[in-house]
Amino acid sequence: MKNKRYYLTPGPSELYFTAAEHMQYALRNDLGSISHRSKQFQEIFQFTTAQLRQLLNIPSSYHIVFTGSATEVWQLLLANCTEQSTYHFVNGSFSSRFYEFAKELNRNAQKLEVPFGEGFDISEANIPAETEMICVTQNETSAGTCMPVEDINTLRKEHPEALLVVDAVSAVPYAPIDFEQIDSLFFSVQKGMGLPAGLGVWIFNDRCVARFKALKEKGQVVPPYHAMDTMLKNAEKHMTQATPNVIGIYTLGKVAEDMNRRTVEVIRQETVFKAATIYGLLERHTKFKPFVREEKHRSQTVIVADIIDEDYTAATVIEKLEAHGIVVGKGYGEFKDKQIRIANFPTHSKEIFYQLADVLETL
Amino acid sequence: MKNKRYYLTPGPSELYFTAAEHMQYALRNDLGSISHRSKQFQEIFQFTTAQLRQLLNIPSSYHIVFTGSATEVWQLLLANCTEQSTYHFVNGSFSSRFYEFAKELNRNAQKLEVPFGEGFDISEANIPAETEMICVTQNETSAGTCMPVEDINTLRKEHPEALLVVDAVSAVPYAPIDFEQIDSLFFSVQKGMGLPAGLGVWIFNDRCVARFKALKEKGQVVPPYHAMDTMLKNAEKHMTQATPNVIGIYTLGKVAEDMNRRTVEVIRQETVFKAATIYGLLERHTKFKPFVREEKHRSQTVIVADIIDEDYTAATVIEKLEAHGIVVGKGYGEFKDKQIRIANFPTHSKEIFYQLADVLETL
């Protein structure tokens, strides 16, 4: 029997330690077979959204719907709630692709772009008055950078007219985002929530709905699949437009419940502690250093290390860690050979982080 | 411990009898954690598409990609491969929604519509010469009707210029569709394939790709999520645009392999046999009759029965069957009280059909 490998990759990642058990319960209890128009499914939908509301402190006035992925939500937000002009904070591959989606939809997409590994000085953003949507990637998984929550709140204060939307992939449930300061947030489940991939969660408020309705009235063609009105009409009945990933929705609710028992505050404290352990080690290591220089822009959930020893590549480091049963990610894109990326999600225990630190020390 | 219930509902339905085992293997072997950019994922993608090619006899020149659902593919086909004019055969809720999607995308959508429970005389279709896409729902899950494969082939012969696309939800793997006579086919996995929902499969040929490219060159805005070029570019590397339902893709390949061992021919013979058992019984029953009058339009995979006894409703029949551990579906929409729908998929054994027949006899 092969040894257990722990995935500290930044998504997909190690499953939350209770996830497989919940999926097996779902399989044993026919949740793969029940109708998505049944009362049983409605109860699952209701349970999962209630647990998410508690975990992420989502106001009751905000709507929660399910999609195939977070990537899908980029398009849904743009197609449903914008007509012409968007503004993007771009500092890595995912924020860049969100921006590219807007361009492909023929929006006049503006951006503030800084290199991989850097955060934003938001006062440098030249956001046009007519901007309909400001798009923030709170945690840039490709580069290990984050936008501090205070910056998001400042954006809201300075641009109250625009919809402020937050890509929270790999930020959830850690990032303490204040929903009252934003209009929409979305994520996929295979990062911090620790589920197998194949499900996205999209949260939005009535300002988004009003914007959607105004655009429809003006005659804008909104693609009908997962269009906001259809999603809402179904969500009000605790249902979905098409047959959804029922087992994923069930498991998400149960994992969120498990996290709620542990409390999100404890999860946050542990996340900060584990991140500090690794960043501290990288600071004093002879072969590594933290990629992100500015502490306030360092992601707590995706830690990226530059390899500064000429004899080491990402491949050699990854191989050495794998010998100890620890799987980390390589750098993204052009950084793939000289960086490693380490996920720090709720499922990753302090013990596995101590072990990771021990092995890194010996390199 | 509660008794096992068998889901003979027309989707989601009883899982294929090996599906849960494959999912458990996937969970034990970290397929929920592996990167969707890894060699391991590429091998899964390749395995699954190879097994599907064998099962459905898909030519090597046809592309296979994965989506969130079959509903999503309605939009993808329309948005990627049409500009103005589509033609739809509508005889139930799903074919009608495909048509509505075209209208919502501002296509000039024409249709031949017949009532629920009726098939088409395709010679009555008045398909305009400029039609870009003919949309056929081979098996109308809501009504239990099918379009004979010969009719599909006739449509191709008479309208060789239009793209001919087939919604094969609840038809796969039974329907012996000749891919050389069509341009695209799609389905979701929670029907005949017997998997938990949350995955769609889209198959298309180079005529679709050429059409997509021509429209792009003309400046058509194609929504970027799951756009055909991005899907193709990734599929060539055995990858997907966004993090997909990896466990679903793996399980689909393993279930298809299991079906290939049994052979699709045996599955087809058994499907016809089981359907004949129930249709025969309905014909001679005093409380039921087959909803679909014309034998050639009777679906082999979704059998719809009219309840003709005034003392019976769908709810009472369903309750009586559930007492024997058999779950069937109620009628769709306005037929919900006076019809039952019975799925006849590869996972449903002859034994469970004998049992169903026995119980129906006693009513």
From TrEMBL, chains A, B:
Residue ranges annotated for the Aminotransferase class V domain, each copy included: 32-331
Gene Ontology MF, one: transaminase activity
Keywords, ordered alphabetically: Amino-acid biosynthesis, Aminotransferase, Cytoplasm, Pyridoxal phosphate, Pyridoxine biosynthesis, Serine biosynthesis, Transferase
Catalytic activity entry: O-phospho-L-serine + 2-oxoglutarate = 3-phosphooxypyruvate + L-glutamate; 4-(phosphooxy)-L-threonine + 2-oxoglutarate = (R)-3-hydroxy-2-oxo-4-phosphooxybutanoate + L-glutamate
Pfam families documented for this protein: Aminotran_5 (PF00266)
Lineage: superkingdom: Bacteria
Family the entry assigns: Belongs to the class-V pyridoxal-phosphate-dependent aminotransferase family. SerC subfamily.
Name the record gives this protein: phosphoserine transaminase
Native source organism of the sequence: Algivirga pacifica
